[in-house]
Amino acid sequence: MSKPIVLYSHATGPNPWKVAIILEELKVPYTTKFINMADMKKPPFETLNPNGRVPVIEDPNTGITLWESGAIIEYLVQTYDTTATLTYTSSPERFYVSQWLHFQMSGQGPYFGQAVWFTRFHEESLPSAKKRYHDQVKRVFYVLDKALEGKQWLVGNKCTIADLSFVTWDLMLPFIFGDDTGSLELEKNYPNYFAWNKRLMERSAVKKIVKDKTEATAVHE
Amino acid sequence: MSKPIVLYSHATGPNPWKVAIILEELKVPYTTKFINMADMKKPPFETLNPNGRVPVIEDPNTGITLWESGAIIEYLVQTYDTTATLTYTSSPERFYVSQWLHFQMSGQGPYFGQAVWFTRFHEESLPSAKKRYHDQVKRVFYVLDKALEGKQWLVGNKCTIADLSFVTWDLMLPFIFGDDTGSLELEKNYPNYFAWNKRLMERSAVKKIVKDKTEATAVHE
Fold this sequence. Notes:
glutathione transferase (chains A, B); Thioredoxin-like_sf (chains A, B); GST_C (chains A, B); glutathione transferase activity (chains A, B); Glutathione S-transferase Yfyf (Class Pi), Chain A, domain 2; transferase (chains A, B); alpha+beta
């Protein structure tokens, strides 16, 4: 039995929960430390991660401290998923997993993040900036929907970290589109994406994290 | 001698040139096909990459077609850098390389890209959006500068794909800040970053790509 990994997290931030889903899937023991936004960009937390963001993990079993959710997920499967249940060791599949993980990191996360920013936090209302990012969110659905045509999962015939990495930003949709979320008509406009997302949401690890996140949001700043 | 890899590229886009630097470093033969922006989001190119962007590679030696610059770079070192000159096979170093590559993909590329967008291409001038991304660019310098304190390279004591992946977006600075580029006072404000960037720019692979990009910009749309 390995010692629990420490996961530095935030109640509402999607990226730490992305890591938590993988920990749950792999049944790797972990404890969560919630960090307030105000404490992220100064020591002692900034000493762990010069980028001043969560997630960060500390793994007492290997001594590593690591940040960037994409790199943490790769570390977790390479260290704890010894039978490759959530990834592939063969080529070309393992490179396709990397491709989709990088698309999630560079194409979904940042654009969904900017959509949240201009919808909820920017100092003034900028309709054309908001529209830019709402359109980018729809473009991500379009790309995923096209890639999933005739397929259950993004790579091969099993659920991998590539699929699972998209879940927690997708949970932010109501936060981005508010009352207009329904008008996206996801099932009609992006049927492959919609069915895939449903398959992901039905996994017990994902269900547990959705519940944990809701509970954490109620008690942490 | 391996058959040349086909690299789909664009004259001004930073991401294909990031891949070209690694191909040059590894002395892997390749040919470049330039794609116009207008042709990226429709077949036949969209069939290669549902995300409708460059870079994409086709490698006749393995039969793989791959997109996302971060994934392509990982593929290239794992396939062609058999003595790990530009990466590490040992832990924790290989995970730190992954961490910085993911930071480049999610933290530098997208934010520098939005800074370019709101400075050069957005339909209206939005000073507060422009300021947001100019500040984010400076924050990336701050993070790199802090991480490079007392160090020559981001991971261990050699130049890796982690370092090299930052070069081509850094070349966009004059495009983002225009006449104000000098007022960033990079050498004074981010001395570790400045010295590191200079070391990178002195590498022969980087010099060649800077020259190739300048020449391509003169003849391709």
